[in-house]
Amino acid sequence: MIKRLYILLPVLLLLIQSPSYTQEKEKEITISAASSLTDVLKELGTTFKQKTGVKAVFNFGSSGSLYQQIEKGAPVDVFISADPDIVDKGIKAEVLETSTKTILLKNTLVLIQPKASELKIKKLEDLQYPEIKKIAIGNPSSVPAGKYAEEVLTKNNLNLSLKEKFIPAENVRQVLDYVGREEVEAGFVYVTDAAIAESKVKIALTLSGHKPILYPGILVTGTKNPEEAKSFLEFLKKSPEAKETFLKYKFILP
């Protein structure tokens, strides 16, 4: 009996180590994406996992800050920016894979107010009114929405005159929070941000006079999951589920 057990032991060990006895580690990819994509990508990440079995782990923030993390070696597979200039910078530095760049979405810049505000803002010049004491704006050096807002204000000769009223924010969602909590009289965000907080904020102005607001998606150079990362970008670009979800959140398809 003991002799038979010794003979069978190697077979038992092989069985225990086989795929049917061991659970493989769940496949994951890491995506660094602009804050304005938070809600829509969380929803699409769930759909992507259901379709492919690959878990999408998200890191949201201002596009400039996320790029700095990638530049310093953060383990990221896919980068989705709200500013094409940042992506072009990464391509030149060979931090991002130029052949994988694709424009996923467009957006619109708006000026918002707290929902209960009785201040009438009919044009940008109205921001000079003394009743408007604080205006939230993303830091233009790292937050694309702040950069676009600065372009609009400069074009209208308002940037310098309003500077003292600016309350800087680390990302566009922080601007949304400031306005939603009535800590400021106005703020610059995307129309998609305003849409998810319509119970707390309202759109005063839809703005133009800035560069097109585009969202390029691209693989990070040296990603350890190139096939899964490409599959995720393909899913966002071409799948009916992604298109439907993007439109639901008020994004514009390219």
TrEMBL record:
Keywords: Metal-binding, Molybdenum, Signal. Transmembrane segments: none annotated. GO terms for biological process: molybdate ion transport. Molybdate binds at residues 36, 63, 145, 172, 190. SUPFAM superfamilies: Periplasmic binding protein-like II. Belongs to the bacterial solute-binding protein ModA family. This is Molybdate ABC transporter substrate-binding protein. It comes from Leptospira neocaledonica. The gene is modA.
